[in-house]
Amino acid sequence: MPKTRDPIDVDLGARLRAMRTARRMSMEALGRKVGVTYQQIQKYESGMNSIRAATLIRLAQALNCETSDLLVSMPMPEGDAALPAPSASRLGLADEPLPGIQDLQPELRGPVSALIKTIDALHSRPRTAAPAKASAPLAH
User: Fold this and answer.
1) For residue range 111-130, what is the model confidence (pLDDT) as tens digits?
2) Of 5, 7, 39, 81, whose Cβ has the fewest other Cβ atoms within 10 Å?
3) Listed residue (106, 86, 115) closest to 98, CA to CA
4) Please, are residues 29 and 21 in contact by the beta-carbon 8 Å criterion?
């Protein structure tokens, strides 16, 4: 029985192929950089095999791009189009939904929420005392 290809794997594979060919890199060269065979790269690009998260990160590094560049405009699985916006409490910010986040495109909600969480974490970090000014050398 032939394996059915997941549309997400097919889309990711097409992006991988486009990034690789834009860099004039062979499947063999990319496979060497990532630690897999060219046959495995071929299976990723055709959507026959899913790409593990760790491999996706290695592929992005080998292609000198961001992991998100390979994931841009990934199709949403059926039924996920109306995912609820992450609440601020889930992000550790407050007990109400983040204003306006539900108006963002679904693929932007996670990264924007993560950015807000990072900014909040940086803002709420205890501040260290300013370094002491160097005093003038003592005269002997």
Assistant:
1) 776 677 666 666 655 555 44
2) 81
3) 86
4) no
Residues counted in the chain: 140
Amino acid at residue number 28:
E
Distance of CA 113 to the CA centre of its chain: 13
- φ/ψ (deg, to 5) at 6: -75, 135
pLDDT band, very low/low/confident/very high, at 4 (cuts 50, 70, 90): confident
3-state secondary structure of 97: strand
Question: Encoding tokens for residue 88?
Answer: 């601020």
- How many other C-beta atoms can be found within 10 angstroms of the C-beta atom of residue 116? 16
CA distance linking residue 80 with residue 84, whole number of Å:
9
CA distance 58 to 60: 5
Whether this model's pTM surpasses 0.70: no
